[in-house]
Write a structure and sequence with these properties.
This protein has two domains: about 190 residues, Isopropylmalate Dehydrogenase (3-Layer(aba) Sandwich), CATH 3.40.718.10; about 130 residues, Isopropylmalate Dehydrogenase (3-Layer(aba) Sandwich). The protein is about 40% helix and about 20% strand. The strands form two sheets. Strands 2-1-3-12-11-4-5-10-8-9 form a ten-stranded mixed β-sheet, with helices on both faces. It is globular, with a radius of gyration of 20 Å.
Length: about 350
């Protein structure tokens, strides 16, 4: 049977190592995918003189699905974030980060199961800044009905499709009455179309306090760009950090699944990187393929890999950052043995 062509962007630092880990797991699981390798970040700058080659963007647009490792943007003037640029070029407006406790990973919290949905294209991350006069800078926060309606609808659709019961929108409309006020007005309008989903709102500072007090009270979080960036990492801390948290970005035509942790250049090439978050992201990718391309083989493979890494963790097979003794290769071997 045919395979699905996936654009693999290994990235920088530990990116090639965790990418190789995913490829080994997919080969062992006989995943119905084939890889097309393209480059971005420092590695691409070294090879072709651009942190984001046009060929990489065009290939993702052509095939519709990408798995991207951590990409480093060179420090210095003239270079914009690879991640932000990719999201804008591909119009990946919805960032989705599921956060749940994993057996065998000890944390202060239990029974956490939150999905952070973040608007990905505007807000303060629109990057519109001006120096009005020396020593005075303005940053413009962009909020539009179009972008807010579609991210709110995406969050409610996700909740309905995945059996979630509640969408909570966090905001600061008590102060930013126009910008955040527009965000919650649009969310309320979309809420009327989903009577089966409970909707509520929290001012974000109070919401953060309540999250830390008891994250089990939350289900799906709907957030604008900057708030979502902060809270997705906060929520990751409930379950063990970015090393156990997958991520994905969705648009109308493309989807990109990625490791949300950094490129960790200090441990690159040492073979000790934890590949779990990237493997978890690849499982999200397989489930996306199963849903959008109606291929049950992808769902079966996703379940096989997920079950294997869950069993590995429960058996104490962990990398050093999670309190274990395994290196990258050792964890991959433990996972494959449990498939």
């Amino acid at each position: 049977m045919s395979t699905h062509s996936i654009v693999l962007v290994p990235g920088d630092g530990i990116g090639p190592e965790v990418s190789a880990a995913v490829q080994s797991v997919f080969e062992a699981a006989e995943a119905p995918v084939s890889w097309i390798t393209r480059y971005a970040g420092v590695s691409a700058m070294t090879e072709v003189g651009s942190v984001l080659p046009e060929e990489t963007v065009e290939t993702i647009q052509e095939h519709g699905v990408a798995l991207k490792g951590p990409c480093t943007t060179p420090v210095g003037k003239g270079f914009t974030s690879v991640n932000v640029t990719l999201r804008k070029r591909l119009d990946l407006y919805a960032a989705c980060r599921p956060v749940r406790n994993l057996g065998g990973v000890e944390t202060r919290y239990k029974d956490v199961d939150i999905v952070v949905v973040r608007e990905n294209t505007e807000g303060l991350y629109a990057g519109i800044e001006n120096e009005v006069t020396p020593g005075v800078v303005t940053s413009i926060k962009v909020v539009t009905e179009r972008a807010t309606h579609r991210i709110a609808r995406w969050a409610f659709e996700y909740a309905r499709a995945h059996g979630r019961k509640t969408v909570t929108c966090m905001h600061k409309a008590n102060i930013m009455k126009m910008g955040d006020g527009l965000f919650i007005r649009c969310a309320r309008e979309i809420d009327k179309e989903y009577p089966d989903i409970q909707y509520n709102e929290l001012i974000i500072d109070a919401g953060c306090m309540r999250l830390v007090q008891d994250p089990t009270k939350f289900d799906v979080l709907l957030l604008s760009n900057l708030y979502g960036d902060v809270l997705s990492d906060l929520c990751a801390g409930f379950v063990g950090g970015l090393g156990v948290t997958p991520g994905a970005n969705f648009g109308e035509k493309c989807a990109m699944f990625e490791a949300v942790h950094g490129s960790a250049p200090d441990i690159a090439g040492k073979g000790v990187a934890n590949p779990l978050a990237f493997i978890m992201s690849s499982v999200m990718m397989l489930n996306h393929l199963a849903e959008t391309r109606n291929d049950p083989r992808c769902k079966a493979t996703a379940d096989k890999i997920k079950g294997a890494y869950n069993r590995a963790l429960e058996d104490g097979q962990k990398t050093r950052d999670l309190g274990g003794e395994l290196n990258t290769e050792g964890f991959v071997k433990a996972l494959i043995e449990r498939m």
